[in-house]
Amino acid sequence: QKEVEQNSGPLSVPEGAIASLNCTYSDRVSQSFFWYRQYSGKSPELIMSIYSNGDKEDGRFTAQLNKASQYVSLLIRDSQPSDSATYLCAVNMDGNNRLAFGKGNQVVVIP
Amino acid sequence: SAVISQKPSRDICQRGTSLTIQCQVDSQVTMMFWYRQQPGQSLTLIATANQGSEATYESGFVIDKFPISRPNLTFSTLTVSNMSPEDSSIYLCSVAGGQGFTEAFFGQGTRLTVV
């Protein structure tokens, strides 16, 4: 399967701060990218999708995509304790929603 | 999105036995997938469930171990056969290509423990 890298360790941020998560992928032909949030003991929940270079904002979340650098990121503004979860980067391998996932980044928001 | 129901939500099974997991969607979807999430790990795609034909398996997964059915556009099953403790994982059904959405959404998962 295609490689998706999320190398950062657990991220602790104070409440109200910005959490920044990064993801790189190996396959240049990938066209669609996703961020899922997974609470402990729960299934992944889609929070952002991005298909074009640039930024996409949805509420407190902003996804950034740079296909030339094969890089996608997620910013969480005004972090809340409810944002404490593991965030999974996923890449669509072939345009048919066969997803390759990164290992995930655990985010802990400290009140 | 769609409402995805997986059964059972969890099970404890004896090694050497088989377990069939069901995934039911409340509306027709084009694509259904099965993923595995081993303890402390991320998700790995097992196979794409194809309606009316054999599933398409990813590298490292075979039909004899993980037979899959998809008789229609709203239902699929995954069987974990001849289980060993290494099969202890969360198994997740995912759907995409439904009414009003193209992205992939997940069922609540089946937590399997093999003893």
- Sheet with the most strands, sense and barrel status of chain B: 7 strands, mixed
Poorly predicted parts of chain B: none
**What is the β-strand count of chain B?**
11
Distance between the termini of chain B: 36 Å
- H and E string of chain B: EEEEEEEEEEE
In round numbers, the mean pLDDT of chain A is: 94
Helix segment count of chain A? 0
Strand content of chain A: over 45%
For the secondary structure, the number of strands of chain A is 11
Q: Based on helices, strands and strand pairing, what is the structural class of chain A?
A: mainly beta
Shape verdict of chain A: globular
- Amount of beta strand of chain B: over 45%
Discrete helix count of chain B: 0
Q: Largest interface, by Cβ-Cβ below 8 angstroms: which chains and how many residues each?
A: A-B, 20 and 24 residues
Mean pLDDT of chain B: 95
Query: Rg of chain A, please?
Result: 13 Å
> What is the makeup of the main sheet of chain A?
6 strands, mixed
N to C succession of SSEs of chain A: EEEEEEEEEEE
Radius of gyration of chain B equals: 13 Å
Structure description:
The complex is a heterodimer of chains A (111) and B (115). Chain A is an all-beta fold. Chain A has no helices and 11 strands. In chain A, the strands form 2 sheets. In chain A, strands 2, 4, 5, 9, 10 and 11 form a 6-stranded mixed beta sheet that branches. A 5-stranded antiparallel beta sheet of chain A has the order 1-3-8-7-6, with no helix packed on it. Chain A is globular. In chain B, the strands form 2 sheets. In chain B, strands 2, 4, 5, 6, 9, 10 and 11 form a 7-stranded mixed beta sheet that branches. Chain B has a 4-stranded antiparallel beta sheet with strand order 1-3-8-7, with no helix packed on it. Chain B is mainly beta and 115 residues long. Chain B starts with a strand and ends with a strand. At the A-B interface, strand 5 and strand 10 of A face strand 5, strand 9 and strand 10 of B.
